[in-house]
């Protein structure tokens, strides 16, 4: 088998407990990537004491001291090199990375606040949105993070059945759509199908061993697996850049209309 060229991967995880499933998955990912010869960067958000709240302290040199406009200040701070050092460091890591893996426990159908705050603060205007000062010209498949891959690994308390296509909680890929589509694909990343460990409240050693084996397999194929077929904004499916053209998936509405062949379940 030909050697996979050496890549850089950023692993971001949000759990303070070393023995948590989230942390075990993060450690396994580091191991597999290291064995493949890739360079691993790690952002342990709790360990770093990451400031989760996006607020006025993020802008030490305000463009408008009278009214806090996050978008205006973010754009100014990013383009004038006056962001806070913690945000600059995370942007430096992402921009260096060929792939980003986000690992977190599912908390209220989403990521923990510390990771949401990582996105809020690091996804600067001019970089992750409003790319190159061109408004929404480059988004969904294009933008500051184009060419990078992204993968979520989520530990989920409830059983897989609750997240199945007709499950009571709703399908996991739809619950996580704001992250996969709205946060990662928006600035241009190619997003792989989410990896989930279900039923974590009652998982036993064998279940965990099986989950770890499956996860190691997914990490090993980080640069080979097919991304979710989200429709790019500028690929022709959105003639006015806002809504699907009438000829595209004419019978579909809702989130899954933005995935090509969405009737095929996302793993
Ligand atoms: C604040 C909070 C919110 C949670 N929300 C959900 C949820 O929305 N759905 C679910 O299935 N489990 C939920 N859980 C259970 C966690 O997903 C579970 O504790 C986690 O997967 C365990 O993995 P860990 O060892 O990585 O923490 C929640 C737990 C906490 C503490």
TrEMBL record:
It comes from the Bacteria. Signal peptide: none annotated. Residues 7-216 form the Flavodoxin-like fold domain. Its EC number is 1.6.5.2. Keywords: Oxidoreductase. InterPro entries: Flavodoxin_fold, Flavoprotein-like_sf, NAD(P)H_dehydrogenase_qn. It is an enzyme of class 1 (oxidoreductase). GO terms for molecular function: NAD(P)H dehydrogenase (quinone) activity. Belongs to the NAD(P)H dehydrogenase (quinone) family. PANTHER family: NAD P H OXIDOREDUCTASE-RELATED, NAD(P)H DEHYDROGENASE [QUINONE] 1 ISOFORM 1. This is NAD(P)H dehydrogenase (Quinone). It comes from Variovorax ginsengisoli.
């Amino acid at each position: 088998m030909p050697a996979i060229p050496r890549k850089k991967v950023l692993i971001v995880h949000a759990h303070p407990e070393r023995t948590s499933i989230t942390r075990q998955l993060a450690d396994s990912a580091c191991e597999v990537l290291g064995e493949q010869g890739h360079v691993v960067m790690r952002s342990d958000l709790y360990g770093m004491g990451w400031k989760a709240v996006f607020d006025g302290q993020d802008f030490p040199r305000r463009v408008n001291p009278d009214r806090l406009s996050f978008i205006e200040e973010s754009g100014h701070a990013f383009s004038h090199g006056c962001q806070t050092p913690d945000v600059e460091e995370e942007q430096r890591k992402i921009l260096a990375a060929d792939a980003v893996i986000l690992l977190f426990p599912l908390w209220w159908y989403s990521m923990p606040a510390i990771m949401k705050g990582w996105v809020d603060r690091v996804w600067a205007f001019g970089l992750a949105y409003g790319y190159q000062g061109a408004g929404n010209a480059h988004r969904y498949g294009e933008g500051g993070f184009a060419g990078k891959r992204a993968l979520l690994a989520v530990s989920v308390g409830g059983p897989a059945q609750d997240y199945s296509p007709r499950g009571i909680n709703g399908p996991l890929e739809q619950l996580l759509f704001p992250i996969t589509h709205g946060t990662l694909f928006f600035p241009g990343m190619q997003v792989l199908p989410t990896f989930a460990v279900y039923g974590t409240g009652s998982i036993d050693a064998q279940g965990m061993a099986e989950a770890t084996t499956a996860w190691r397999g997914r990490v090993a194929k980080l640069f080979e697996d097919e991304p979710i077929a989200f429709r790019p904004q500028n690929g022709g499916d959105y003639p006015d850049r806002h809504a699907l053209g009438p000829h595209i998936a004419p019978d579909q509405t809702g989130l899954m209309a933005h995935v090509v062949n969405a009737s095929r379940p996302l793993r």
